[in-house]
Write a structure and sequence with these properties.
The protein is about 45% helix and about 15% strand. The protein is of the alpha/beta class and about 500 residues long. It is globular.
Length: about 500
C-alpha cells in the first residue's frame, strides 16, 4: 500500500505528462511504468555490484558491456542505466532513452514472457522536456521511498484508480500483507510449480518467490535456483495468466525484478476452452474476479462437470481444482456469497465438492474493509487440497477482525488490530484449536456438522453467541420514575408560562 505523500508525487508526475501532450491516461500509465522499470533495473544492478564486491566473485550483470540498437549504432552499456542518463541534458537524455534504453528493455530475456509482452510496446513520450520532467519526478518519488518499491503493482493500481477502472470487473489488487499471509499458509517449496490463473500484476507470484527465497535459500541447490528463475529447460516454477496486455507487462517486469527471468506469463482467458491445463501445478494462489458471468459456450466442459454455472467466482475455484496435481494445495479469495448462497444450486454444488470430494482445510473470514478504497466487499480465504477422494475431517474457521490497517478508505496502519500473526501462529498448531470454544475467534468444525448444515460455510452458523442477562428495576419502580419526571416537566412548564405572562420592560 502506498501513502498519501506518494500519491501526491505520482499525481504531480501525471500532471507533467499531461501538460507535455500525453492526453490518453492509459498511455500515461504505460510510459510511466516503463520508466519506473528502468529505474528499478538500475537498483537491481547496484545490488549485483555490491554482491560482486562483497564476495569477490563475478556475478551475472543486467547491463551489457556494449549495446547496439536496431540501426547498428553502438554505445557503452553503462549509458543504458538510469543513474547515468537521468542527469544528462534533456536532448541527450531523450536520444539515449528513446533510441537505446527503451529498445534494450524490450529485448531483455531473449524469448521470454517479458519480451513477448513488450513486442507491441512503443516509446510515446513526445518531447525531451516532458521526459526530463518525468524522470526527475520518478527519481524524486523513489528517493523519498528509499528506493524500496520492488513491486510496481501498487503504483500501477493507484494510477488505474485515477481512471476509476480498478475493481470495475470485480478485480482489484490484493494487499501485500494478505498475499504474504496466504503464501505462508500454503508454504510453497522449491521446485513446486505455482500458478495464479488471474495474475493481474503478479502479486501472488512475487509473494511466493519472496517466501521461497527467504525460507529455503540455505537448502536450495543449483537445480532449485534454475527452476526458480525458469531457466531449467523443464518449465518455469511460476506461471500466470491474464487478459490485460498492460498487466502482463507489469507482471513480467515485477517477476524479473525478483530474479524470475523466465516465468510462464501468458495472455489467456483462464476459464475458456483455450486453457487446456490439467493436473500440472503443486500450488495455486489467486484472487479471481468476483463478479460477472461468461458465455456458456465458451466454458470448458471440465469446469461445468465440477460446478454447473456461468458465475466467474465459482468457475475459478473449479479451475483451481482442475489445474492442481493430486495433493496440490490452493489458497484463494472468494466473496462471502460463495460461502452461503442457496438461491443457485451451483453454490451448494461447489461447497459440497470441496467437502466431500476434496479436503477443505480452512476458511478465514476477512473484514469488509480489506479491499478499500476500491471495494467494500466481504471476502474469505479458502484453503483446500485436491484429493479427488475426499479427506475433509475438521475445517478450521477463523473470524479475522483486523488486518493491521484501518478498515476505512484511508487504510492507515493500525497494528493494534492485526489478527494475521495470530492466524499464522494458530495455523502452525491446529491441534491446540481442538480446545477452543465456539465463542472464540477460531475453532475446528467437524465435517459431519457442515454436512448437517447443508454445506453452509457461514461463520455465524457455527459460532456460539453468549447473551449476558441484564437486570432491570421492577415495572412499578419504572412507572413511578416516569410519573415523577412528568410532574417535574409539568411544573417547569407552569413556571415558564408564568414568566412569559409578566409584563417585562427593558430600558
Amino acid at each position: 500500500m502506498i501513502t498519501g505523500a506518494t500519491k501526491n508525487k505520482v499525481d504531480d508526475i501525471w500532471q507533467k505528462m499531461w501538460e507535455g501532450g500525453i492526453t490518453n491516461p492509459l498511455e500515461v500509465i504505460s510510459q510511466l511504468t516503463y520508466l519506473m522499470f528502468m529505474h528499478q533495473l538500475d537498483e537491481k544492478e547496484f545490488e549485483v555490484e555490491k554482491m560482486e564486491t562483497l564476495l569477490d566473485v563475478e556475478q551475472k550483470h543486467i547491463f551489457p558491456a556494449t549495446y547496439q540498437n536496431a540501426y547498428g549504432v553502438e554505445i557503452d552499456g553503462q549509458q543504458l542505466r538510469w543513474s547515468r542518463f537521468k542527469d544528462l541534458p534533456a536532448e541527450t537524455m531523450y536520444k539515449t532513452v528513446s533510441e537505446f534504453a527503451f529498445p534494450f528493455i524490450k529485448s531483455l530475456g531473449e524469448d521470454s514472457a517479458f519480451t513477448r509482452s513488450m513486442e507491441s510496446a512503443t516509446f510515446g513520450i513526445p518531447t525531451p522536456k516532458t521526459l526530463q520532467k518525468a524522470v526527475d519526478g520518478i527519481d524524486s518519488l523513489f528517493t523519498s521511498l528509499g528506493n524500496n518499491i520492488a513491486d510496481l503493482g501498487d503504483l500501477y493500481e493507484y494510477m488505474l484508480s485515477k481512471l476509476n477502472t480498478a475493481g470495475t470487473n470485480g478485480q482489484f489488487r490484493t494487499p501485500k500483507h494478505i498475499r504474504d499471509m496466504m503464501v505462508r499458509l500454503v508454504d510453497p517449496k522449491p521446485k513446486q510449480l505455482i500458478c495464479d490463473p488471474a495474475c493481474g500484476t503478479a502479486g501472488f507470484l512475487i509473494s511466493a518467490a519472496e517466501y521461497i527465497r527467504s525460507t529455503y535459500t540455505e537448502s536450495m541447490g543449483g537445480d532449485d535456483w534454475e527452476c526458480f528463475s525458469g531457466r531449467n529447460g523443464q518449465g518455469p516454477q511460476f506461471s500466470g495468466f491474464e487478459m490485460d496486455q498492460t498487466m502482463l507487462r507489469i507482471s513480467a517486469m515485477n517477476l524479473m525484478l525478483h530474479s524470475v527471468d523466465q516465468p510462464d506469463i501468458r495472455y489467456l482467458d483462464s476459464i475458456s476452452k483455450n486453457n487446456t491445463v490439467r493436473g500440472k501445478y503443486d500450488v495455486t494462489l489467486a484472487n479471481p474476479p468476483f463478479t460477472g458471468s461468461v458465455d456458456t459456450e465458451d466454458i470448458d466442459g471440465s469446469l461445468k462437470a465440477i460446478v454447473d454455472s456461468k458465475q466467474t467466482e465459482l468457475l475459478f475455484v473449479a479451475l483451481f481444482l482442475r489445474m492442481l496435481k493430486l495433493g496440490g494445495r490452493c489458497a484463494c479469495i472468494v466473496p462471502n456469497g460463495v460461502l452461503f448462497r442457496t438461491n443457485s444450486k451451483a453454490y451448494r454444488q461447489l461447497r459440497k465438492e470441496l467437502v466431500d470430494n476434496q479436503r477443505l482445510e480452512a476458511i478465514i473470514y476477512m473484514p469488509s474493509g480489506v479491499f478499500k478504497p476500491y471495494s467494500g466487499v466481504s471476502t474469505a480465504v479458502l484453503l483446500f487440497t485436491k484429493t479427488d477422494a475426499g479427506g475433509t475431517d475438521n475445517v478450521w474457521l477463523y473470524n479475522m477482525e483486523g488486518d493491521g490497517y484501518t478498515l476505512d478508505d484511508k487504510r492507515d496502519p493500525d497494528p493494534t488490530h492485526d489478527d494475521i500473526p495470530d492466524i499464522l501462529e494458530r495455523w502452525a498448531d491446529l491441534d491446540s484449536e481442538k480446545n477452543r470454544t465456539r465463542t472464540d475467534k477460531s475453532f475446528l468444525v467437524p465435517r459431519e456438522e457442515i454436512v448437517e448444515n447443508d454445506y453452509d460455510f457461514s461463520f455465524n452458523k457455527y459460532t456460539e453467541t453468549v447473551y449476558k442477562r441484564k437486570e432491570y428495576p421492577p415495572t412499578s419502580e419504572i412507572l413511578a420514575d416516569l410519573s415523577d419526571i412528568n410532574e417535574r416537566i409539568a411544573t417547569g412548564l407552569d413556571e415558564l408560562k408564568a414568566m412569559l405572562s409578566e409584563d417585562v420592560h427593558y430600558e
